[in-house]
Amino acid sequence: MTRVLPSVTVLPRVPLFVWAVLSSVVLSLALRPWGFGALALLAFIPVMIAVSQERSWWKAGLYSYLTMLGGVWVALEGLAREFTLVFILGVFVFSGVFAFVGISTLFFKRFFGSRAILLFPIIWVALEFLISQPVLLGSWANPIMAIGYTQFDTSLLQATRWSGVTGVSFLVLLFNAVLAFIVIRWLEQHQWKVISFLPLLLVLLLSSLAVFLPVPSSTAKGKAFRVGIAQAYLPTLEYTIADFDSGAQAIIANRYKILLEQLVKRGAQMVVLPETALGGWYADFERNELLLDTLRGVSLALVGVKTAYVDSTGNREGRNAILEFQREANRIREVYAKQIPIPLTEGGFNKGKNLGLVRLGGVVFGLGICWENTFPGLARASVLGGAEVLVYQNSLLWAGATATPVLHQRISAFRAVETGRMVIHATAGGSSALIDATGKIIEAAPQSLETTLIGLVQPRVGLTPFVQFGDWFGVLCVALTIFTFVLAGIKRLKPR
Length: 496
Known about the structure:
Nitrilase/N-carbamoyl-D-aminoacid amidohydrolase; 2 domains
């Protein structure tokens, strides 16, 4: 039998959308570098209460949309400086997807009453998972908005080992849903029945234990070695000019040459340059005097460049790529091309087709460029392929002093915990970092500063549950969402 519970109003003089705006603001504060991740454990309570009281389906969708607006705004705000149209489209489109959560929750209230709010986390995480899958959306997939990324500074980061950031998102939303459900039931019944909430609190407690339970993880292999990161800070206009002017290209190369000399003097056994670090296009690496002169004195290096070739039909082919340089072997070659170019802004680049794995100095590195650090599946594939250290090369000069560079650094910390591997996070303009397998940042360079960074990197082997089984929790949430819709459909078809 279908039930429709009467609407309950909290603070009648305050429109319900105000509570959604409050959730949006708190979520934004939780995600920002200067905010507190623990705020996310309370951020969704106002919007959940608002959705539970709403009668109109489009308003319920509006509430969850407004909430996600605060998170997406922070995640993409760096684009606003130079890619304003992309920023506007990204914010409104990806936030709009989450209107489905409010609409679905209100739909399920007809069949499950106030308990429908407990489905909110499942539906939300199912959407997070679906929009992050390149197999479904190609280059338009966007995993950067996962709610779990708010937990960089809390113990919940360690739960990432079990099922990736998806599992952390669910724990955050579950905590909100349990507290919201308790408030909603009190508003309906005007009394506390603690015994009825004990099962929910027990589920929440057991779920949180995932942070502390022992888990199969990685172990150190061989000796640690000294890695240096060269972090230049130049105007993006300089790079644009360098595509056409050899003089501008030489200026950029000279800046990096000075930084590399500093790293060699400090004992760096290997150096990493950021994404497209050297201006211009590169093709014949072994005869490129500017490139070779920049790397003079370096033993091992990974260098981000733009490579250009002419195929057999005379068409020019460009890639956002990584070169390896081995002085002893007298070798410099392209080892990886970006697999997932950013839509619109990187439309001129061809997609790479090979997994980013390269062996340098007896260590296997898994490679990624730019926002590829936001795709857990790529990191997992690298580790399954034998990667002992992960390397992410970024160029976020266009993002300036926004939250975007630090957010990318924090996302790399999640990849470290998920895979049980150290991460070398090299970013033009900052903030670069060396991150250990527990997600701790052991060395970091300030944002918007030209500098160098050096530290010990330890190769590791072994597989975490996430590497072994993948994002099983995301798949589970999708399955549960579909099952619940089917169950609700069956209930609706039954005669009263």
